[in-house]
Specification:
binds calcium ion; globular; 12 helices; 6-stranded mixed beta sheet; alpha+beta; 9-stranded antiparallel beta sheet; binds MU-OXO-diiron
Length: 750
């Protein structure tokens, strides 16, 4: 989700090392290591160690002596600003092609792009066929694809058909109320009005209960079977036994250290073991045992807490006085069931927590595991921490070593985390193509309910440390335990998790430029993560400032509204973002080496063009990320953006082969001499962000998501159509998945 649309509140209050001179120290270190390479910023941040750096012996860019690195075999496309998706070799189709419903003729060497499962597509016969003037009800939306597509993944139904028929899991992050209620009088939700400037505001007179239920049902996760036909076109399988929706109202289980604790007891679940709904599901992950991970990001804004606020409410930004969509407004409606609306107001109203919903927000902020194959409940894995989780990515798997997951907190000056399982990896637990098994969530219990959560510290010398967030950990000055520093009882792991962000402050984690997606190279184990931008990153030497009236970093629940540059986040008022990369000796290690893989830059910003970007790859605000392993140690790192559009192009997809940057030197980073290997592959329609990404196992189909387009897809009367068709006139916009395929049926990008 873009910052323009959702202000990512930033509440990190810590005064962790501002690293005011770290960039210079790191430049100096690289200069020494590389002797003779000079101190240009573009080169100083490159390469894990000497061996990789020196492998490009002739220092040129001809790659003539590269033996193994894969190369990208498409021409970078130009930037685009139109109501259409653009892919290499395809020409935008006119309206005539749209009615045919399919991606039409493209250049022989080009690519097609097809719209699949746009918002509102019915997945069961209990729903309603999509049409441009369809009036949504709670039932219609609950039986249809949700809104604002984000993270997604695929789950094979059989090994043989894994690239042409699979269960598709899709996050539906948030909603556009105007599109959802476009058929209402005035095109507005009931109780809303436009002011003189055209802004739409809630009028405060109460909300229609069914409209709220419809909004709730447009959120969450869509599970739907997809199939590629003999003609190469994709469609969904109506009424598949796998099809189902998880919404912001679906009953779910809590698991791990927080489950059953006093922190999560509510009137709905006095035992603190259940809750309803998953919300604002942004990026995703998957497990080696065949389950989907959906991640709760900007969930705090659907709750309010007007009184009785505690540290975590302030730190995570639970609003007071109102909520994002006013889902609490119909509370007390005659049709309300089990406080379905009242639960969004967490202000205490009863004698104790089992009589109200003061703890409802504490049942959100987690990684949620879903078994897409069975009709089981989703499980919130509390051991992986509680914050605004962008996503969750499994690390390199090594038999007999812990299973690790990486996750970032997407808010300005927040942290990167790593979870390390207590259980050691047993490869026999990886069995995702066995459709008969029903124990996937039990395997999840084994690896994801018991382990240690760490936060990342990025040192100025290119080293890093994972800082354990356990009650017994001693704080950095050795004066007390982390539990004591947080004001908790000894051994209160649930309390540490509820207060994950404050725990990370105290331990000295490094405030980052809004961590978004991660990606893992399964061969090297290297981890990449996008840091999208940070308007609250201040210049070297400035003092940090705090929100919520806080004045110091030993005050809990305050938040770090502005933090000065540090080594990993070296640009003040960072508009364009960067991709960071780190490498650990083994998955369970608590140390790592890191570097910046590429710095974003577009012509219109003041940011320094450290990576030497050019017309074929200018990008800003990297967000989505996927390491597309192609074997032999090669892979494509796909980078997606969420700028809300720049002066140069709409949001886009770029590709780079890390191993191809410097003649097989996997330690190389993008710089002025090799950035021609970073290529723009696709551009989205006006107003959108491009997010979510995977390819079929045979790599012949690349799936991306177009979220919040302003006037696309071109024909609002059909479900499957050419994504490259330019819209004429105005349509009811629909977020959608787009499948990109090569017209000759070959592998994408090579
Ligand atoms: Fe939902 Fe951080 O993007
Ligand atoms: Ca995102
Ligand atoms: Ca974003």
């Amino acid at each position: 989700m873009s910052e323009e649309i959702e202000d990512h509140r930033l509440f990190n209050h810590s005064e962790n090392e501002p690293f005011s001179s770290v960039l210079e120290r790191r430049i100096a270190r690289r200069s020494v290591l590389r002797g003779g390479l000079g101190v240009a910023a573009a080169t100083m941040l490159g390469g894990f160690g000497l061996a990789g750096c020196s492998s490009d012996s002739d220092g040129d860019d001809d790659d003539g002596d590269m033996a193994a690195a894969m190369m990208l075999a498409f021409e970078a496309i130009a930037g685009s600003q139109q109501d259409a998706v653009v892919v290499p070799g395809a020409t935008a189709q006119d309206d005539a092609a749209v009615g045919a419903g399919m991606a039409a003729a493209v250049a022989a060497s080009g690519y097609t792009a097809q719209v699949v499962v746009p918002w509102g597509t019915p997945i069961t016969s209990d729903g309603a066929p999509w049409r441009a003037d369809l009036a949504f009800t709670p039932s219609i939306q609950e039986n249809a694809v949700g809104m604002h597509h984000d993270g997604m993944w695929h789950f094979p139904i059989s090994e043989e058909t894994a690239s042409s028929n699979f269960i598709f899991a899709l996050n539906n992050e948030y909603i556009d109320q105007l599109a959802l209620f476009a058929t209402n009088p005035g095109g507005l939700p009931t109780g809303y009005a436009r002011d003189a400037d055209g802004n739409v505001d809630y009028q405060g007179g109460g909300r229609d209960a069914d409209e709220v239920r419809t909004e709730i049902n447009a959120h969450g996760v869509t599970i739907v079977e997809l199939r590629r036909g003999d003609d190469g076109q994709w469609s969904h399988v109506m009424d598949s036994t796998y099809n189902r929706r998880f919404t912001s109202a679906t009953p779910m289980n809590l698991s791990g250290p927080v489950a059953g604790s006093d922190y999560v007891k509510t009137a709905y679940s006095p035992t603190g073991t259940e809750t309803r709904g998953t919300n604002n599901n942004c990026a995703n992950g998957y497990t080696p045992w065949g389950t989907y991970l959906t991640c709760e990001e900007n969930w705090p804004n659907v709750f309010r807490k007007d009184e009785g606020r505690e540290n975590d409410d302030n730190r995570l930004g639970i609003p007071s006085g109102g909520t994002r969509y006013y889902w609490e407004a119909p509370a007390g409606d005659a049709s309300e069931v089990d406080g379905e609306f009242a639960r969004f107001n967490a202000t205490p109203s009863a004698d104790d927590a089992t009589g109200d919903y003061r703890n409802e927000p504490r049942t959100f902020g987690y990684i949620v595991e879903i078994d897409p194959y069975t009709n089981t409940r989703a499980v919130k894995r509390t051991a992986l921490g509680r914050f605004r989780h962008e996503g969750c990515w499994v690390g390199k798997l090594v038999e007999g070593e812990p299973v690790v997951f990486y996750s970032g907190h997407d808010s300005r000056n927040e942290y990167i985390y790593k979870y390390v399982s207590d259980a050691m990896w047993d490869p026999s637990d990886a069995n995702r193509t066995d459709m008969t098994r029903s124990d996937r969530l039990a395997i999840g219990d084994k690896y994801m309910d018991s382990g240690t959560l760490y936060a990342a510290r990025f040192n100025a010398d290119g080293s890093g440390a994972w800082l354990p967030l356990t009650p017994e950990t001693m704080v950095p000055d050795g004066s007390q335990t982390l539990a004591a520093a947080l004001g908790l009882e000894p051994g209160d792991l649930a309390g540490v998790i509820i207060n994950t962000c404050d725990a990370a402050d105290i331990m000295g984690a490094t405030p980052m430029d809004r961590p978004e997606w991660g990606a893992v190279d399964p061969t090297s184990g290297e981890v990449y993560m996008t840091l999208t931008n940070n308007s609250d990153r201040t210049a070297e030497g400035t003092d940090p400032t705090y929100t919520n009236g806080g004045t110091s970093d030993d005050e809990l629940g305050v938040g770090f509204s502005k933090a000065p540059v540090n080594a990993a986040n070296p640009r003040p008022n960072n508009s364009d973002g960067q991709v960071i990369r780190w490498r650990e000796p083994t998955p369970g290690e608590t140390t790592f080496d890191w570097e910046i893989f590429v710095f974003g830059k577009v012509p219109s910003t003041d940011d320094e063009n450290i990576s030497g970007l050019s017309d074929q790859n200018y990008f800003s605000s990297c967000d989505g990320l996927w390491y597309d392993d192609r074997g032999d140690g090669n892979g494509i790192l796909w980078i997606e953006t969420d700028t809300g559009g720049t002066d140069y192009t709409n949001d886009q997809v770029l590709a780079v082969v890390p191993q191809g940057l410097n003649k097989g030197d996997s330690g190389a980073v993008v710089n002025e001499s090799n950035q021609s290997q970073l290529k723009r592959f696709a551009v989205g329609p006006n107003g959108c962000e491009v997010t979510g990404i995977f390819a079929t196992p045979d790599r012949t189909a690349l799936f991306i998501n177009i979220q919040h387009p302003s006037n696309w897809p071109a024909d609002d009367s059909v479900n499957e159509q050419d994504a490259t068709a330019v819209t004429s006139g105005e349509v009811r916009p629909r977020a959608s998945t787009v499948v990109i395929q090569k017209s000759d049926g070959g592998q994408i990008a090579v």
